[in-house]
């Protein structure tokens, strides 16, 4: 580096706001910046020359030495302790959670490890709050992570304290160069007006620009989405009671407080692709306190965002499953009461009909028991089907079978459920050999016919038709029942939904939901035509290969 760059680096590292330390191969701390000294409440004389274990809780010492040896054997830039909870200890014995990123470099003095240390106490607190909302989840979303910044103010102080100033300066420059070259974060600096003056290799790698395209040519505003920057400007304006323009003024306002503050943005690469970052902006001031530029450090948080999304989805799924269980208990307690009462009363009466002349009466009650048991089985099957669908455990298994015979058998199973005078008329048109999931088709037909029987009066005809031609397979079910209002049709296939005109009729509100899900799994479409008191028609189409 030339003299001008060295001075710029001095300013850059003197104004960063993150804990940084450097250790040698023996694990001895050789450099520590003021921010880190403040974090751990040590003075430079107390910490420099001390083993790194001084900053680590004693219960982790036995593992720390093996981790250090392993890292020196396979050194590379990476997060430390991925998937583990890391803790550090202050001078007064207080422990606090940290996030550590590691880098390495080698000079004539030997091999060194550079560590960026972030206090993530706030994030851990947020994780605990989220954990409190749902104790069944083992991992929670971390609302925010602390920023990673880079400072070398301590290097300048060490230079003024040594007699071999020139030698120390060269050593510092080597350290600066390695920090600059090997840091995993995007690091850039600007002049007071916002023109970029420094752009590190990691910034080139992440953003797709070469340093010579950026330095002295543009501001970091080009990395931002326009609408997002406008929204941030509005937020900062409201907080400060000022009118902040959606340009570099946003950076200037962020740095005004002189306190580390992390902002999440979506950065735009040169090829227009995007990725999320955690950005920290620091004003670089001279001895008089005047701003000479700004330091920006951005960390790619793509993996963190993915983890947060996965956790949110898991939480949402957990809530849905919990709701399903609660609904099951509520509905089961209500829907099981009538068929169980029927079974109990019929069983009692059968025990009284002991004479051979009572055979017809016994058969009547046996049929009532069978119908009630079938109803209970249907309710349980509905819940089991919904549970498997929600868990993604339903797999479509297409196979060739005789569709006409298959549906006729299904119709026969429902004879015991039909009301007095009801009749199911089934017709088929076209080829009878069909290739699809026969079990799913059975669930669809059973639910369609069960609903038609349930919501149609006595002495009515239920028409069921299947058709296979060159365009695919079509299933139609038409009844003469209560019908469905236009308003209810908007929610017809929602889980647990029941029409406003069927509250006095038993049901779980799952049948049509299951039909729609099975239809969707087999790439089919379902249509409903209905008017109140004029019956309902359901048509289901499957685009399959003709026989």
TrEMBL record:
InterPro entries: HATPase_C_sf, HATPase_dom, His_kinase_dom, HisK_dim/P_dom, HisK_dim/P_sf, PAC, PAS, PAS-assoc_C. Residues 5-49, 187-215 form the PAS domain. Residues 82-132, 261-313 form the PAC domain. Transmembrane segments: none annotated. It comes from the Bacteria. Its EC number is 2.7.13.3. PROSITE patterns: HIS_KIN, PAC, PAS. This is histidine kinase.
